[in-house]
Design goal:
Helices cover about 40% and strands about 15% of the residues. It is an alpha/beta fold. The strands form three sheets. A seven-stranded mixed β-sheet has the order 2-8-7-6-5-3-4, sandwiched between helices. The N and C termini lie far apart (about 45 Å).
Length: about 375
Amino acid sequence: MLSKLPHVGTSIFTVMSQLAAQHQAINLSQGFPNFPVDPRLRDSLSRWAHADQHQYAPMSGYPPLLERLAQLTQDSYGRTVDATTEVLVTAGATEGLFATIQALVHPGEEVVILDPSYDSYETPIVLCQGIPVRIPMTTDYLPDWERIGNTITAKTRMLIINNPHNPSGRVWSKSDFEQLEQVMALHPNLLVLSDEVYEYITFEQKHISIHHYPRLWDRVITVSSFGKSFHITGWKVGYVIAATPLMQEIKKVHQFLVFSVNSVAQAALNDYMDFVDVQELGAFYQKKRDYFRNLMADTRFELLPCEGSYFQLASYRSISKENDLEFTKRLVTEFGVATVPLSPFYKENTQNQCIRFCFAKEDTTLAQAVERLRKI
């Protein structure tokens, strides 16, 4: 059979999680927390499960939740959005990314992706017969604006950015956004898809959102994630914000992709936001990051900067000359710790001898993992 996606196989996240299960390894690979969700959120879900909230939600989302997301955007970034025409609840951030690209990218148009990049970006581009153009970031995992400027042309429909960045944990500066503004001024038809799923998980350097830049609003689509913010990745609830003309097109795809998102989950999340302060997430995860980094100081790994997200990159140059896939597989089989190699985040499987740890885990899990890593 002729495949539409001949280049797509099993994701590295699935591969490493399966290896972890096979070898009873501690899983610091896939980006999901292993600690309980807030009991207040569970209670809210339970209440709505016993209420009459089991039929389709409106296509755009549960109206009270849409209003709350508009208010959150105003409170967090000072941007006023129309809850009825500029906000869309999606089946996770992945569906938001997919629907956006399918709606706005036409056959033959180019989409620029900055490597290392999350694996959900390229496939929807290919499926709508767009042309993915993947260019490397700098060696310290920040945007290479000279290369970006030389790559974007009249054929470029969209630039995909990710801040805070997965897998590196780096956070953009004001200078980066100033240079983004300059690029967009030179290319008036360019759209930006801004993946901000870790927006509330930043540390010393606070998150700067593309929402902070009013001149860009008409040409920007942002994607956010309740799963990342509230440790509920299995709920698969996210949201997209875009100016009305862009959102009209995204909704056309969304309504035939999933139509609407889990009604009980949306109602529960709306109630839960009465109690939770998303601005506290950074401090919560900073404690996790610092705890993990302090433990890792006694290993032979070299830790790279981590300014946001719940991922920590580490170099193993002083440990082994193996490629990163071989090294991570050996970590599982010989030492019982699962991580993710960095090379699958690149088009050319670039070897930097770096791996990614997820520190969104119980402290005891992190301590047990590092105890094993000290034996390397």
